[in-house]
Amino acid sequence: MTTLNADPQELTKFGDLAHNWWDPDGEFRPLHRINPLRLDWIDSQARLAGKTALDVGCGGGILSESMAARGADVLGIDLSTKPLRVAQLHAMETGQERLRYREVAAEALAAEMPASFDVVTCMEMLEHVPDPASVVRACADLVKPGGWVFFSTLNRSAKAFVQAIVGAEHLLKLLPKGTHEYSRFIRPSELARWCRDAGLSNRGFKGMQYNPVTGHYWLSDDTSVNYLLACRSAP
Q1: Which of 82-86, 131-135, 209-213 shows the lowest mean pLDDT across its residues?
Q2: Which of 134, 170, 189, 227 is most buried per CB count within 10 Å?
Q3: Is the confidence at residue 131, as pLDDT, over 70?
Q4: Dihedral through CA 41, CA 46, CA 49, CA 53, nearest 10?
Q5: pLDDT at 163
């Protein structure tokens, strides 16, 4: 019997917040604010128009829907039922036809549909699963030869603890308390190693910065808190 690579408490946590997923001023406000940065960075490298894309851990579909709007045919997958239903309903409301969703694990989909996608994204998800390296391997198996894989997560650093947990959850209340668990944060060197082990080549990191006074987000070379990693599979 295969053990599902998911934490029931994490699924419940995000399921309980699902009804607020598309509220730009609600609990998921930071996701709405950073999504254009992530989308533009992904699109600048992978050129989404006309591509097939997979969004692993899609939640309520913020990134999935925006990739479809850029011209990609997108499949969003997640194991939390309520956010998926929210994503499906929102796609129906917006009339987005390039988008579909499934409740399936990345590992199971990799066994079913290996080498099927031009672009695979896995944003803010690795720090919420028991075995993140398994998800990285699944993403590598799902992407086509020469395709792109993008990850984003949180660095396990003192600065990330102060900003992402103490600051964002407790002081600024940008996120619900308990959103993140520091022990699950992932150092860039760890993620890079998992990608290499899965046969992906590292094409560059980007850090994500936030100014609590102005509310401004931007990309930089500082990966000490939030960061993104672009990889490619061998052609």
Answers
A1: 209-213
A2: 227
A3: yes
A4: -100
A5: 78
Residue 203 corresponds to which tokens in the numbers above?
A: 């094409």
Q: What is the pTM of this model?
A: 0.91
**Cβ-Cβ contacts under 8 Å for 228 (sequence gap 6 or more):** 38, 41, 150, 151, 152, 205, 206, 207, 208, 219
Residues 47, 50, 54, 59: is their CA dihedral positive or negative? positive
Domains of the chain, with CATH numbers? 24-233 (3.40.50.150)
Instruction: Return the structure tokens found at 107.
Output: 């590992």
Q: What is the pLDDT of residues 36-66, one digit of tens each?
A: 999 999 999 999 999 999 999 999 999 999 9
Exposed/middle/buried for 219, CB within 10 Å: 0-12, 13-18, 19+? middle
Q: How many CB atoms lie within 10 A of CB 27?
A: 18
Q: Are 190 and 198 in contact (CB under 8 A)?
A: no
Alpha helices by DSSP H, listed for 95-202, are 106-112, 132-142, 158-160, 188-197
CB 54 within 8 A of CB 31: no
pLDDT band at 19 (very low <50, low <70, confident <90, very high): confident
